[in-house]
Amino acid sequence: MKPLRYAVIGGGINGLAVARQLLLDDPDVRVTVFEKEEAVAQHQSSHNSGVVHAGLYYEPGGLKATLCRRGVELVKRYCEQNALPYDECGKVVVALGEEELPRLEAIYRKALANGVPDVEMIDAARLREIEPNCVGLRALYSPRTAIVSYGQIAQRMAQEIEERGGTIRLNASVRRVIERGDQVHIELQSGEMHPEAFDSAIACSGLQSDRLAQQSGDAATPRIVPFFGQYYVIDEAYKSHVKGLIYPVPDPRFPFLGVHFTKRIDGQMTIGPNAFISLGRENYHGDRFSLRDIADYLSYPGFWKFASRNVPATLRELKTVVSERIFVREAARYVPALAEVGVTPAVRGIRAQAMESNGRLVDDFVIRQSSRVTHIRNAPSPGATSSLAIGEHIVRNLIRRD
Ligand SMILES: Cc1cc2nc3c(=O)[nH]c(=O)nc-3n(C[C@H](O)[C@H](O)[C@H](O)COP(=O)(O)OP(=O)(O)OC[C@H]3O[C@@H](n4cnc5c(N)ncnc54)[C@H](O)[C@@H]3O)c2cc1C
């Protein structure tokens, strides 16, 4: 029998995880990864907080909850097996006011329902033992939350794919995936058709996922609306003021987790990310505006519905965008000793966040499938934590379920 041939579009951590899983499960298959950049993992997979989320916030039973929990296990094992750094530095989610306590309790219940190990609710005294400079009424402590470099993990996966006989085609931007009879063809942006036909294709194209899906005949919605997240690095002399990860209790009026302290695997301590609409899907330094990207969301009715419902969030985030000081003070509510700390801007991350036409941000992961083509339509955080589990899920439950 001829070996099965798979095309994977997108060499971010999810595409690489899918390609690796295909080769692991059947060493005879032929796998080609198409990546538009000159190297793998140049977008979300190397511009994120580097947190291995333990599974605190996600709706029990949903894909995020299930794949995040499995993902933690797999990422930890992958780092161990490949001598990549994995630091279980722990995380506290801190309530500053009484009104936040019911929401903190709700997160605790979800964490228990999701099977997150060793989580506990702690009082202010215990919080001080864990994070001596942090203030708060109560906190949820997750000692198993960890940090890694997803960029490094992705690089290692790319190497492994090639070692296992897979092919990674760089500088290969795919315009559309064409399903014809029992074959799938890949048309490149250059207009050229890839010479080889495939039995199946999996599109994991992050910030471009809605466009590639629509051009390939999948539904136009949900659409990707890019939200950037700015980070600042704390001056070296102050970084030991925070030991691990300090997060606020998410405010249900605001769609993202809120500015937090994140220890990095290279030892730096960062504050961020905030969340604000980006003037380009790949505008990492604030100087690569894209009129096409801006026009895309301005012409999307969902965006205006979202914007009209999120005026307070927009104003709060805008303040942190225009003023570095406000940004730092927002975080320093949890660590007052850092209110005046010096910071250096770091490169932004840009979230590929899917939005429905009614303006709702899609919360769970969305993976759509026709007979031979699978599209990841929404894989925001904890998408990197979950990547190896997303790969496993797509390969074992969707593609090869027969
Ligand atoms: C600010 C921020 C912080 C985050 N923090 C965390 C965190 O702490 N923990 C966590 O688990 N998750 C986090 N995430 C989420 C995580 O980074 C993403 O879920 C994950 O990286 C998604 O991986 P991906 O492979 O789907 O997408 P990407 O990494 O964006 O990769 C998509 C790839 O597809 C390629 N591509 C696109 N279009 C085409 C095309 N037409 N042809 C060929 N190639 C194409 C791109 O060049 C890119 O390489 C964060 C994200 C952001 C933005």
Question: How would you describe this structure to a colleague?
Answer:
The protein is globular, with a radius of gyration of 21 Å. It has helices spanning 13-25, 63-81, 101-113, 124-130, 150-163, 209-215, 291-298, 301-309, 311-322, 324-332, 387-399; strands spanning 5-9, 30-34, 51-52, 91-95, 120-123, 138-142, 146-147, 167-169, 174-180, 183-188, 200-203, 223-234, 245-248, 260-263, 269-272, 276-277, 343-355, 366-369, 373-378. The longest helix has 19 residues, at 63-81. The protein is an alpha/beta fold and 402 residues long. Helices cover 31% and strands 24% of the residues. It contains eleven helices and 19 strands. The structure holds flavin-adenine dinucleotide. Flavin-adenine dinucleotide binds next to helix 1 and strand 17. Flavin-adenine dinucleotide is lined by residues 9-15, 34-37, 42-45, 47-51, 53, 173-174, 204-208, 212, 229, 273, 349-352, 376, 379-385.
Secondary-structure blueprint of this entry?
Layout lengths: L4 E5 L3 H13 L4 E5 L16 E2 L10 H19 L9 E5 L5 H13 L6 E4 H7 L7 E5 L3 E2 L2 H14 L3 E3 L4 E7 L2 E6 L11 E4 L5 H7 L7 E12 L10 E4 L11 E4 L5 E4 L3 E2 L13 H8 L2 H9 L1 H12 L1 H9 L10 E13 L10 E4 L3 E6 L8 H13 L3
Parallel strand pairs: 1-2, 1-11, 2-8, 4-13, 11-19
Antiparallel strand pairs: 3-7, 4-6, 5-6, 9-10, 12-15, 12-16, 12-17, 14-15, 18-19
Helix pairs in contact: 1-5, 1-11, 2-11, 9-10
Cofactor: FAD
GO cellular component, one term: cytoplasm
EC number: 1.-.-.-
Unreliable segments of 5+ consecutive residues? none
Estimated structural class: alpha/beta
Instruction: Give, in order, the helices and strands.
Output: EHEEHEHEHEEHEEEEHEEEEEHHHHEEEH
CATH topology of the largest domain, what is it called?
D-Amino Acid Oxidase, Chain A, domain 2
Strand content: 15-25%
Q: How far apart are the termini? A: 17 Å
